[in-house]
Design brief:
Layout (H helix, E strand, L loop, with lengths): L2 H29 L2 E6 L10 H13 L4 E7 L9 H6 L5 E5 L21 H6 L2 H13 L1 E6 L8 E5 L12 E4 L4 H6 L3 E4 L2 H10 L4 E5 L3 H4 L7 E7 L4 E6 H5 L3 H35 L3 E3 L3 H22 L4 H8 L2
Helix pairs in contact: 2-10
Length: about 325
């Protein structure tokens, strides 16, 4: 073999070897899982934080580990009120978003709170999901992946120190956050704003006669010891969402994005079941602690719901003159 031919073959072998190495590196890069850095707004063990953990499990199982969600923590990682901006800026890839926390950027998102008629699966069929994806991208530059609201109308309840035979809080002072102010006023009560840490002693000392709280979680604070009655007419929906940074979404291959969208739809069903099971267990625990459940007659229920929803929708429409009516129609029968 001539020196020239031998040199040519050697160069070819080197080229093939380099191509194989490059191909192996590319295959290795493709085989490497996409890891999404995530945060939750509440303590990681809080029942309201669990939807992101549910999604994590579903995504990792259904993609065979090609997409993973690394939940970094909660407020110790990014303060809850700053998490939306962290997703928007790409500091965080995925988060359990709270619409009321990013209401200044996307006021349309809080409308889900006043939904009492439709499951998330219904909202994917009637155009609400598509509208939210569009408005989240246009106004916030984030991808609206899914609702984490669960069953409609099961987010909050009022807890009181005495039995009531009708929805009238006249003469009663009720601890509120902004969520409960309208309903307490609508039922003739006096709203008293205070942080969670002060509520137990305020109930114990008679500073307040009741409180607004999430459907579950009162046991953690010991409230059943000092507020023995729950008005068992839950109201509003949880305004949680799953949001992703645009950059994180775009680095996922197109076929895997389609799979992620399908997982997100199934996730919404799983979250609804999770909340339903959790709330049933919560009721059993409250009853075991001697809490009595107040039920109003039909006319009382109508008055109670009117106090909860009428003012809420009025405020929402005032803040959303462009798409407010459209969103309300998508969320009400």
């Amino acid at each position: 073999m001539s020196k020239t031919r031998r040199a040519t073959l050697n160069l070819f072998a080197l080229a093939v070897g380099a191509a194989m190495i490059a191909g192996g590196s590319q295959a290795s890069a493709q085989d490497k899982p996409i890891v999404l850095r995530g945060v939750v707004p509440y303590q990681t063990q809080n029942y309201l934080s669990q939807p992101l953990y549910i999604l994590k499990k579903m995504v990792e199982e259904r993609t065979g580990g090609k997409i993973k969600i690394d939940i970094l923590g909660s407020e110790e990682v990014v303060p809850a009120l700053q998490q939306f901006d962290a997703v928007r800026n790409g500091v965080i890839d995925i988060a359990l978003g709270i619409a009321s926390y990013y209401n200044n950027t996307i006021p349309e998102a809080i409308g889900i709170q006043y939904n009492k008629d439709f499951l998330p699966a219904d909202l994917r069929k009637n155009g609400y999901h598509e509208l939210m994806r569009d408005v989240h991208m246009k106004k916030g530059n984030v991808v609206y992946l899914a609702s984490a609201s669960g069953n409609p109308g099961r987010a909050f309840r009022l807890y009181v120190k005495k039995n009531l035979d009708k929805p009238d809080l006249s003469g009663m002072k009720i601890r509120v956050s902004p969520v409960y102010t309208s309903i307490v006023k609508g039922l003739n009560g006096t709203p008293v704003a205070m942080p969670p840490s002060d509520v137990y002693s305020a109930l114990e000392r008679g500073v307040v006669d009741g409180l607004g709280w999430t459907y579950a979680g009162t046991i953690d604070y010991g409230f059943p010891e000092v507020a023995k009655y729950v008005i068992d007419h839950p109201f509003y929906s949880i305004n949680s969402t799953i949001i992703m940074s645009k950059a994180a979404w775009e680095k996922i291959p197109q076929d895997q994005r389609a799979q992620l969208d399908q997982i997100a739809a199934d996730f919404e069903v799983a979250v609804a079941k999770y909340y339903d099971d959790y709330c049933k267990d919560e009721d059993a625990r409250l009853k075991a602690k001697g809490v009595s459940f107040i039920k109003f007659a039909p006319e009382g229920v109508a008055k109670f719901e009117s106090a909860a929803y009428d003012a809420g929708w009025a405020e929402f429409l005032a803040k959303n003159p462009t798409d407010g009516e459209k969103i309300k129609k998508l969320l009400t029968k």
